[in-house]
Specification:
The complex is a heterodimer. Chain A is of the alpha+beta class. Chain A has three domains: 1-26 and 68-234, Alpha-Beta Plaits, CATH 3.30.70; 244-332, DNA polymerase, Y-family, little finger domain (Dna Ligase, domain 1); 407-471, no CATH class. Helices cover 32% and strands 26% of the residues of chain A. Chain A has helices at 12-18, 45-49, 58-64, 75-89, 112-115, 118-132, 144-153, 163-170, 183-190, 195-200, 203-210, 212-222, 252-272, 303-315, 354-365; strands spanning 4-8, 28-32, 39-43, 69-72, 96-97, 103-107, 137-141, 238-248, 276-284, 289-300, 323-332, 370-375, 385-388, 407-414, 421-431, 439-447, 453-459, 467-471. In chain A, the strands form five sheets. In chain A, strands 14-18-17-16-15 form a five-stranded antiparallel beta sheet, with no helix packed on it. In chain A, strands 5-6-1-7 form a four-stranded antiparallel beta sheet, with helices on both faces. A four-stranded antiparallel beta sheet of chain A has the order 8-11-9-10, covered by helices on one side. The termini of chain A are far apart. By secondary structure, chain B is α/β, with parallel strands linked by helices. In chain B, strands 4-2-5-6-1-7-8-9 form an eight-stranded mixed beta sheet, sandwiched between helices. In chain B, helix 5 runs parallel beside helix 6 (139-151). The longest helix of chain B is centred in the middle third of the chain and has 14 residues, at 62-75. Chain B is globular, with a radius of gyration of 17 Å. Chain B starts with 5 loop residues before the first helix and ends with a strand. The mean pLDDT of chain B is 85. Classes of the chains: A alpha+beta, B alpha/beta. At the A-B interface, helix 15, strand 12, strand 13 and strand 14 of A face helix 3, strand 3, helix 4, strand 4 and helix 5 of B. Strand 14 of chain A pairs antiparallel with strand 3 (88-89) of chain B, so a sheet runs across the interface.
Chain lengths: 473, 205
């Protein structure tokens, strides 16, 4: 049996605004309505004490109180903050829903073993919400809808027994039962005052008069049928933005917001137990933006490392126009696999792991600066090896061939020595007719008069015009 | 100024008796060539130090000298970094020489950045051995590399032109290749912890 907690946020939009104003005790009002009919949508306590009322016209409000802060009411911001609180609630429960406007519902019984009894959890929830600056009402009940209703009736109501649910709900006035389509008000006027009376009425006539949603709501409320909720899932990408508040033209001033973004990213990654392999740092200008792509070869989540290499890359970006905001977007968040370390590793404690060193080198020398080599199957020397980028661990064995030099020249060069001594050869390589890079050469191992061993070739059948292709170093 | 007991200096092998062979502590990294190990005071490459190889030209056998060491280190799982090599390390041949290519990292760098990359790799402690070609490095740059190799507990190999042989160097071991028509040989020019041996060493292919 599940137990649902409901956190009702009666003034979510207002709290979200109050969080960012310097003086929360000064009169403040949220304004809504069309340009001709501006009226007060929400008020803080100071504004209410000054005599302002919700729904009042703006002109009337100004007559009462000439000086109060006004903020445009933004329904989207409300949704944003509800989502923010859902993310916060996700730390306390794995089933969180922000489906209903103005409240958060979460399953709590599964969290009791981890977080302690309900009284402790409730105290913690209230303390954290107070710290975040959101006023709230909390109730606990066996069904999510009952928790919502109980939170509206009495703050702090906790109903742990399933058997008591029907009895307690029966006493709830219909106006407070969150009935759909304002049915509660109509029922109240008809003389049906509480849910007990309502439930005693024949279902068929109720359905005919008020529609099916009322019956479904009652069934969900009493837990007679299952209440399907759409659950909150944490976003699978990181996107955060810091407004600098002024025009920034040099790199140094960007480092502080950058560090905050990276630390936020790493906190997010550690919650997800993930890492980041590629992210975008966007410097927003007055018009347009400059993007800086940071790519790593392996997933990382060490904030110091990420900060250092982002800084190194940032310092190479030319800031031509003033920067107004910095945004960090990370969409690819692969699982993070910490490097396996030997328990009895003999190396020094302060040693830097190879992946970090590699990223440091790549940040300064370029993305393609660090690579490994692997043999390939093609007999042509230019194609008998290939670059390996990334963490590929398996490197296949080369096919058995006559001795090959340790150094290969990127471009064959003419041999300066006039009379080289032939040590072995020829080995004819004839291949590549299918890809247009046809090769027909006789390879010899030569020794120059200085004692260098050379891997050189001539056109098939010839004995002069030596081209050096490698050194047996 | 504090006096340091002569025993301490002798024990640290910063000082040794001329003409008397000091107590040899064989703590070097084996070179893979018994004859060369016998020549060197530490019976191998000096650990936590820079080794300088002076070459008349590229491709005289400098890699053959290092190959047994690199093969053993990479097979043991240690990372070996090759900084800005003058030619392409030819994968089939390195593999045939025993090097585990999964542990061999090639770093491409412009000459100006190569010294920085060399020092970073030495100092980091992430690599067991680092090969570099610092052509423009002066004495102070070599000292930096030597210190970096010491703090990173790393074998550093600096491959340089023979013309630098006359210049002072902070490397713990300096070896020069001298070629002659009958085949070249490696001469030890300087080695920490003992007088430079008179014999030379030739890699027999």
């Amino acid at each position: 049996m599940q137990l649902w907690a409901c956190i009702v946020l009666p003034q979510l939009a207002l709290d979200a605004v109050l969080r960012r104003v310097p003086d929360a005790n000064a009169p403040l009002a949220l304004i809504a309505g069309s340009a001709q009919q501006r009226c007060l949508h929400m008020l803080n306590t100071a504004a209410q004490h000054a005599g302002l009322r919700v729904g009042m016209r703006l002109t009337a409000a100004h007559a009462l109180l000439p000086d109060f802060a006004m903020v445009e009411y933004d329904p989207q911001a409300q949704a944003h903050w509800q989502n923010f609180l859902a993310a916060w609630a996700y730390r306390h429960s794995s089933l969180v829903s922000a489906q209903w406007p103005g409240c958060i519902v979460m399953e709590m019984r599964a969290s009791f073993r981890l977080l302690g009894p309900w009284a402790e959890i409730e105290a913690r929830l209230r303390a954290e919400l107070d710290a975040l600056g959101f006023s709230h009402r909390i109730a606990l009940a066996p069904t999510p809808r009952a928790a919502l209703v109980l939170a509206g009736v009495r703050d702090g109501w906790a109903l742990l027994q399933v058997d008591a649910l029907a009895e307690q709900l029966d006493r709830v006035p219909v106006r407070q039962a969150c009935l759909p389509d304002n049915v509660g008000e109509r029922l109240q006027r008809m003389g049906i005052r509480d849910l007990r009376t309502l439930r005693a009425l024949p279902r068929d006539s109720l359905r005919r008069r008020f529609g099916l949603p009322l019956l479904v709501h009652l069934d969900h409320l009493y837990g007679q049928i299952d209440d399907p909720l759409s659950y909150y899932t944490p976003p699978d990408h990181f996107d955060s933005r810091i407004d600098l508040g002024c025009e920034v033209k040099n790199h140094t001033a960007l480092l502080f917001p950058l560090r905050r973004l990276i630390v936020d990213l790493c906190t997010y990654l550690s919650i997800r137990d993930g890492g980041v392999q590629r992210f975008l740092l966007r410097l927003e200008h007055d018009e347009g933006h400059t993007d800086m792509d940071v790519g790593l070869l392996a997933a990382e989540r060490e904030s110091a490392l990420l900060f250092e290499l982002t800084r190194q890359r940032l310092e190479r970006v030319k800031i031509s126009r003033p920067v107004l905001a910095v945004r960090l977007i990370a969409r690819e968040l692969p699982p993070f696999v910490p490097a396996a370390r030997d328990l009895f590793e003999g190396r020094a404690q302060q040693s830097l792991p190879w992946p970090q060193l590699r990223e440091r080198l790549r940040a300064r020398l370029g993305d393609d600066a660090v690579y490994r080599v692997s043999p390939a199957d093609d007999p042509r020397p230019e194609r008998a090896w290939r670059r390996v980028d990334g963490d590929e661990l398996r490197i296949g064995a080369a096919p058995a061939r006559p001795p090959r030099p340790l150094w290969l020249l990127a471009q064959p060069e003419p041999l300066r020595d006039r009379e080289p001594r032939i040590i072995s050869g020829p080995e004819r390589l004839e291949s590549g007719w299918w890809d247009g890079e046809d090769v027909r050469r006789d390879y010899y191992v030569l020794e120059t008069t200085q004692g260098q061993r050379v891997w050189a070739f001539v056109a098939a059948g010839e004995r002069s015009g030596w081209m050096v292709h490698g050194w047996f170093a | 100024m504090t006096a340091i007991a002569i025993d301490t200096l002798l024990a640290a092998r910063t000082l040794w008796h001329a003409g008397r062979s000091a107590v040899r502590i064989a703590d070097g990294e084996p070179t893979g060539y018994a004859a060369l190990d016998n020549l060197l005071p530490q019976r191998g490459w000096p650990r936590r130090a820079l080794t300088e190889l002076l070459l008349p030209a590229d491709g005289v056998g400098e890699l053959a000298l290092l190959m047994p060491t690199l093969a053993r280190l990479t097979q043991a799982g240690g990372t070996v970094a090759v900084i800005a090599p003058p030619y392409l390390p030819y994968a089939p041949a390195w593999q045939r020489a025993g090097v585990d290519l999964a542990a061999l990292e090639i770093i491409k760098a412009a000459p100006a950045d190569a010294l920085w990359a060399f020092e970073q790799c030495l100092r980091s402690g992430a690599c067991v051995a680092v090969l570099g070609w610092p052509q423009q490095a002066d004495a102070s740059a070599l000292r930096r590399l030597q210190v970096a190799a010491d703090s990173g507990d790393c074998l550093g190999f600096a491959l340089r032109d023979s013309k630098h042989a006359a210049n002072p160097s902070a490397a713990a071991l300096r070896m020069e290749y001298a070629g002659n028509p009958r085949g070249g040989a490696w001469h030890v020019r300087k080695c920490r912890g003992g007088p430079a041996p008179a014999q030379s060493f030739a890699v027999v292919a």
